[in-house]
Backbone:
């Protein structure tokens, strides 16, 4: 393949990225399981990365998200049925054309180090949607006893990483704590995870002392990035990405002051809670892409048992609680 292009294949959702060789090297490491040879497939999504001294202005389109990014910069996402633009103040501008499958990211000098994955994942999501896949903000683990997958949903900072590490310590195999993928064109919901370094909070280190000592490198949010390779041996083998049958959905609720409480969650409540963090809303209404995404989530929620978890203090016992629920529902014939 050309030195200035990188080809990625996410189980049929193909993305070709053009940019500086050192930028592509960084992305090849981040998406190592998905690096592919050049196929020349015209169905591939395309992203051009380029550095610039000035950014095109924000578009005149409805806003679907705005807020402060982890690095402290303010970002806004504008979207219509045909296109989307992410604008990061004084740093980056990403334009995606859903109709043509082409996108371009403008980066101010020095911005690549902070914003490359943020923009890339928006394009990855667009490429996946074109192929009937949906990128979800959720943790994904495989239940060792039943072989089915578990999805864990909650907003950022709600405990996905802590819960995922607790389960991966016994009885579950970790795929991802943050970026999961749903296939909506299968007879049964299939899911898998994109492996990513985990942002471990110092409270997670306190609650899970078996993780060992961490260097004093906490950022202003009390977090530090931990490569998955550093966790092997503590949580077992990291699961290689592969589509697998979904078994159970868990939404994380408020912490329990006593024992763990795992209660069935009404399907409607589960769908609303998941959609709130995974579907773009705007005053003008949902785009067609958002409606399709909501429909895929509704089908997923209807297919498997849904629970709300209030985790207690003793996280060592949490794997047994979740494992028993998944085994019982499968044995009772709630899944096929």
Residues:
């Amino acid at each position: 393949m050309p030195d200035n292009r990188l080809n990625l294949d996410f189980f049929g959702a193909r993305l070709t990225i053009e940019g500086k060789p050192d930028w592509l090297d960084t992305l090849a490491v981040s998406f190592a399981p998905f690096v592919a040879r050049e196929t020349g497939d015209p169905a591939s999504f395309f992203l051009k990365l380029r550095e610039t001294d000035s950014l095109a202005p924000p578009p005149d389109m409805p806003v679907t998200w705005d807020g402060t990014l982890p690095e402290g910069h303010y970002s806004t996402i504008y979207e219509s049925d045909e296109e989307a633009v992410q604008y990061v103040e004084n740093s980056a501008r990403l334009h995606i054309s859903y109709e043509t499958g082409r996108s371009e990211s403008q980066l101010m000098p020095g911005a690549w180090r902070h914003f490359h994955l943020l923009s890339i994942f928006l394009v990855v999501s667009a490429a996946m949607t074109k192929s009937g896949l949906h990128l979800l903000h959720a943790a994904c683990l495989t239940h060792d006893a039943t072989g089915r997958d578990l999805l864990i949903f909650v907003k950022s900072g709600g405990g996905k990483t802590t819960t995922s590490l607790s389960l991966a310590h016994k009885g579950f195999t970790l795929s991802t704590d943050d970026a999961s993928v749903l296939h909506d064109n299968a007879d049964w919901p299939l899911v898998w995870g994109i492996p990513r370094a985990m942002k471990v909070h110092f409270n997670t280190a306190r609650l899970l002392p078996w993780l060992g000592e961490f260097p004093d490198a906490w950022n202003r949010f009390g977090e530090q990035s931990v490569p998955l390779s550093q966790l092997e041996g503590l949580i077992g083998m990291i699961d290689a990405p592969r589509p697998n049958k979904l078994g159970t959905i868990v939404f994380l609720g408020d912490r329990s002051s006593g024992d763990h409480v795992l209660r069935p969650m009404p399907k409607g409540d589960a769908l609303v809670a998941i959609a709130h963090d995974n579907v773009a809303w705007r005053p003008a209404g949902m785009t067609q892409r958002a409606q399709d995404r909501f429909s895929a989530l509704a089908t997923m929620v209807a297919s498997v048992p849904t629970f709300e978890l209030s985790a207690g203090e003793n996280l060592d016992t949490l794997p047994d609680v979740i494992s028993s629920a998944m085994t019982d529902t499968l044995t009772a014939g709630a899944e096929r």
Q: What stands out?
A: The radius of gyration is 20 Å. The chain is about 25% helix and 30% strand. The mean pLDDT is 91. The CA atoms of residues 259 and 296 lie 34 Å apart.
